[in-house]
Fold:
Amino acid sequence: MSLIGTEVKPFKASAYHNGKFIDVTEENFKGKWSIVCFYPADFTFVCPTELEDLQNQYETLKGLGVEVYSVSTDTHFTHKAWHDSSETIGKITYIMIGDPSHTISRNFDVLIEADGLADRGTFIIDPDGVIQAIEINAGGIGRDASILVNKVKAAQYVRNNPGEVCPAKWQEGSATLKPSLDLVGKI
Structure:
């Protein structure tokens, strides 16, 4: 069953954020746009490249009213240790959630049960706490955070312009479509 269009399920977790431990719940995903980025594990190989890439897009995303959360099944303590020991991860200023209970990973249907690790899952969540976009990659395939910027812009446009949709490769400012009987078979 797809999670698109569903509200984020309840959870409570500890996170590492800018030198402090904080609590995070599904309520943090309401009132603004959110990106939740699951990754398999701290102190690994592809994961730090993805998280750094996400940090490189963080200011742009914040400018769009988006908060970013990374999640792995590691603890918030492990996130702090990784942040303190890795030059790459030390750059991160967004929230790093620990999910050792696997509750969040199960809620988002990205838990690899046999391994106790999360798939590479990315979720765009609207201000109502409803999932609008999902991308899930195999463990060896890293993601490109710049693509998230365009997806967020498209999701925001569609939300703010009922009756319009964004075609493939849509860029901010380019033409959209207004689905109608007149368009059937014309595209």
Remarks:
- The beta strands are 12-17, 20-25, 33-38, 66-72, 95-98, 111-112, 117-118, 120-125, 131-137.
- The mean pLDDT is 95.
- Residues 46-63 form the longest helix (18 residues).
- The first strand starts at residue 12 and ends at 17.
